[in-house]
Amino acid sequence: MSILEKNSDIHRKIELFFIIFILFQPILDLLAFIGLPLSTPIRALAMLIGFIYILFKPGLKHKKKAMIYIFILGFLMLINLITTFMFRQEFSLTVEIEYIIKTTYVILMVMIYTYIFKAFSEREDWQRIIQKYVSIALSMIGAVMVIAELTDTGKRSYNALAKAGHSGWFFSANELSAILAMGLGIILLYFISSKVLTRKMIMLPFLFFILWSMLTIGTKVGLIAMLIVLATVLVITLIDFIKNRKKWHNLVLVSVLAVFSVFMIPNTAIGNNLDTKVLDLFQFNNPEKQGLDQEKENIEKQPSAEEVRKVLLSGRGDYLANQWEHYDDAPMMQKVFGMGRMPKLVEMDFFDYFFNFGVVGLITLFAPFIFIGFIILRNIWKSKFALLNRTTMIFGIGAGLGLGIAFAAGHILSAPASGYYLALLLSFLYVYTDKYKNAPKDEMKEEVNK
């Protein structure tokens, strides 16, 4: 075997590794929960393997730009580290490096999976395999959540006793909510696209588990995402039914899932927490009083806009104001290159990027997202909107939810567990729209119906 053939074989094995790596995400998160320090090293190793893949595989589109960007990103992270060391009184090298790795992980995964999916898209069934593997990963999460519920071993989502909910055997409720929010559309797409009724019946219990899990975690993110995705898929199945009456079973099954989910809301953790939120709005002005007496006293009192904002943002506005004061007092070098990993994050990823990595860091970190978003929209425009099908809509909604969660609730762009799924969605959309941007509408219809 020649050196060229050996290199080609290695590249194919790396591509297969990253496809199978999708299935290992829940396992890595479980390892983190039980305290085995393997998830971070494995993810760091994946970053290194992906970097080597990009560096040595020939013929990659935009390869030179990608390598220049990675070099600039690494250089800026080094400056950020030096700046933090110079100006921070309490400096922890371990904490800073760990945070930098977590932040750059999502960026590099977007780049790596763009090239992996580009190579994998040569297979005719590439879309189905990716959807299948993400569906299996989410089904594993749903099954673990049910087992944790039955054994009463789930980790509480909130420290406050008034709030209900658990994240099963996963460490972070916020990250788990984000994962299910971004992934729900993919498993539903795989479900309605399957032409084998037996496969649908096997998947149905796991879909119930996932939807129940999104309500049981108890976060607003899970509820809002679930309603948006279910409404979108319901519209898609209704349109399919109108066009082809033989597809009635998808409409019926998705309707059952939607009705089940809506009726479950009052009897799950999110139902309890929504009631608590409403009560908090009326108790906000007098937190020392508790119970029914306070509820009756304030039931007619209209909460102010500021009170509503604080309750809905769960205190993030206070953290934002506090961080802004630190930033305002910081030296110019910290304003440009960042203040490092702050002891308390705002938990709104865009602002955390800004405070922790400065103006230059913010622009650099967002550059890949802006570039990929522009290419996706350009490809849709080039296709004369033929690419506006259920695949791009569902993946697009998943990516939009991920970015929206990153802005409003955090735990995405600097969280490898959840940020990984955002990387998958954006990479898939980039490759999918680039592959079919010049395809005729009839060909796109056949592609959707596969």
Automatic annotation (TrEMBL):
The keyword Ligase applies. The lineage of its organism: Bacteria, Bacillati, Bacillota, Bacilli, Bacillales. The chain crosses the membrane at residues 16-34, 40-56, 68-87, 99-117, 129-148, 168-192, 201-217, 223-242, 251-270, 353-381, 393-413, 419-436. Keywords: Ligase, Membrane, Transmembrane, Transmembrane helix. Pfam families: O-antigen_lig (PF13425). It comes from the Bacteria. One of its GO terms (molecular function) is ligase activity. InterPro entries: O-antigen_lig (IPR049504). This is O-antigen ligase family protein. The keyword Ion transport does not apply.
